[in-house]
């Protein structure tokens, strides 16, 4: 698996943002739309800040960009402080010229019985646009990508999942206690992610070092869903020095 280690997360984030910007511009020049898969959480914040700066100061336009977020908690109201709708607005969409009609985030407000149809439609919509050009990923300490927790199937699609206890513990600060963290989420599947033409998994910080080592060097297994990325020809791991420190 190709791994690029940067001195720090700021340098790494700028590099990923510039790669995304270059992709958007190449497609714009051909009159094509760019379809991006996006992640939330602490990891991509610097990438989104740099994309917002490129828009503000260097005229990068997102008019021709369509986005699909990986996941959303369930249940979740879009106006709640922890919602990924709100996260994306605050960290990216409010600072760029994207058409909000081109933004797709799993809907945390649906009644349970409407979720399967919603998930199929999410997949169909991505496919109808020609698939994801580039998928941005973080990695959870369980080895999850999106919210594909241990046990996820390699061909899984968008679906309702149960969050791992460690994932809920890691989210407890945002929710003021683990008991307030939803037990479920809607997430793109491993199979959905795999179909993206380019996949960039980012990880910063020594807290991610041991799971990054398992993801990059460990045996491919559903126990660490990120290990499935070893089977992709289109993946790059982008790390800071601390997240890379356990790699041999
Ligand atoms: C978020 C997502 C998750 C996070 C992962 C790491 O949309 O899909 O897989 O990328 O939990 O979270 P942070 O970046 O907060 O360490």
From TrEMBL:
Domain of life: Bacteria
Boundaries of every Glucosamine/galactosamine-6-phosphate isomerase domain copy: 8-230
Name used for this protein in its record: Glucosamine-6-phosphate deaminase
Organism, as annotated: Rufibacter hautae
Lineage: Bacteria, Pseudomonadati, Bacteroidota, Cytophagia, Cytophagales
Residues of the full protein shown: 15 to 262 of 640
